[in-house]
Amino acid sequence: MDASHTYPKLRWPIDLRLHDAAGKRVLVLQCPLGISEKPLVLVPAVGPILSLFDGSRSCEQILAQFGPQGLTERTLTELILLLDQHLFLANGKFFAAGQEAREAFDRADVRSAALAGRAYPAEAAQLKGLVDSCLAEASAIQSSRGEVACLVAPHIDYQRGGRCYGVTYPELRSSSSDLYILMGTAHQYSHGIFHLCAKDFESPLGKLPCDIDFMTKLAARYGVERSFKEQFLHKREHSLELQLPFMSAIKPGAAIAPILVGSLHRAVVEQRAPKELDEYESFLGAMCDVLVEQEASGKKVCFIAGVDMAHVGKSFGDEDSLTPQKMEKVAARDQEYLSALERLDASALFAHICEDADARRICGFPTMHTILDLFSRLNRRPAVKLVSYDQAVDYPGECAVTFAGMAMFEPENRNQ
């Protein structure tokens, strides 16, 4: 028998959450990477049992602990087999499936929509209607005119963030850029910081082609192996995918360069400026070189940042409960964060995060620090417009996420 059956161990990563379904509370296990395509729904009572699935305890030991509560050998065996069937055990079956999924993604020319039919409609007409309804929110808001250097949009779901997407993306209508560098948050753990993906990105509203020439030049300077070593992170990542329908509505067929930015946690913990990290500095240098070449050839480049801000509440690990008073304090701190963005001050942004060791868990910080740093090194000083700031708060669920829309415009005279 497989050791993972006698000493069961849950594999990693797994999204494990409680949900209400048809009036019943259920425990849902999902694979954030897409190796296991189907979620597994269990009764919440198995939660404490799963907490012992760490590979150090035998089935006999687990039975000894939970037998008095009614756990039988047959039920435990069925649970283990069910987890194995859904690839949620750390064993050869899961690792082989993971390797196969990675190789298949590497071979693919197109990054298919992972959220269609889940986070938004899979049918093009329905999705277009949803996007159009969000964009209609901007009808009474005066959009700016000018060349957009960077558009900052959320990556929260459309149900909570639709208005912010809708009032932010119209700022892109005046853009005449030849390339849109999509930079978003890599939510899953990764060994590296920057992850390129040289694939076209598809949504029900069409395909956005990847600028292979740009990506090839960037990877050559940064290092091809580390550029694409963890590109599998793109397969199910939502931070860029949720930009695609709005991009397709505003700039159909636009050329893109998809990049995910991982954590700068090490820099925050060690109180070291990100530029002191070799990997960060190498990427910034490579990106600057390629952007200078792009500009010299007459090509215009715009950044699209798919980023959220604070994640607070007990669902994210906070000890104190969410209250309106706490959300007012979060808003005040968020304004300090946004002020650093408005001033294009990467150092102030990093200092703000370090003040409280990123207590608000601002997932878009690494992306925005990178973009501000690039602007500084390229001597670019775009004018900044804060379009929207929003809070999505679920007090009963102890979950709150904040996010903003922002547009950064190139001055008419780049050197002014």
Question: What's a concise summary of this model?
Answer:
The protein has helices spanning 3-6, 47-50, 59-66, 73-85, 92-107, 124-135, 158-168, 212-222, 224-228, 238-241, 244-250, 265-270, 278-296, 324-342, 346-355, 365-377, and strands at 15-21, 24-30, 40-42, 110-111, 148-153, 179-185, 194-196, 200-203, 206-208, 256-261, 301-306, 311-312, 383-394, 399-409. By secondary structure, the chain is an alpha/beta fold.
What general form does the structure show?
globular
Overall structural domain count: 2
CATH hierarchy: architecture of the largest domain = 3-Layer(aba) Sandwich
Count of helix runs? 16
Largest sheet: 8 strands, mixed
Helix content: 25-40%
| Helix-and-strand structural type | alpha/beta
CATH class of the largest domain: Alpha Beta
How many strand units?
14
Descriptive account of the structure:
By secondary structure, the protein is α/β, with parallel strands linked by helices. It folds into two domains: 3-103, Outer Surface Protein A, domain 3; 114-409, Protocatechuate 4,5-dioxygenase, Chain B, CATH 3.40.830.10. It contains 16 helices and 14 strands. It has helices spanning 3-6, 47-50, 59-66, 73-85, 92-107, 124-135, 158-168, 212-222, 224-228, 238-241, 244-250, 265-270, 278-296, 324-342, 346-355, 365-377; strands at residues 15-21, 24-30, 40-42, 110-111, 148-153, 179-185, 194-196, 200-203, 206-208, 256-261, 301-306, 311-312, 383-394, 399-409. The strands form three sheets. Strands 5, 6, 7, 10, 11, 12, 13 and 14 form an eight-stranded mixed β-sheet that branches. The protein has a three-stranded antiparallel β-sheet with strand order 1-2-3, with no helix packed on it. The chain has a three-stranded mixed β-sheet with strand order 4-8-9. Strand 8 and strand 9 (206-208) form a beta hairpin. Helix 14 runs antiparallel to helix 15. The protein is globular and about 75 Å long. It starts with a helix and ends in a 7-residue tail after the last strand. The mean pLDDT is 94.
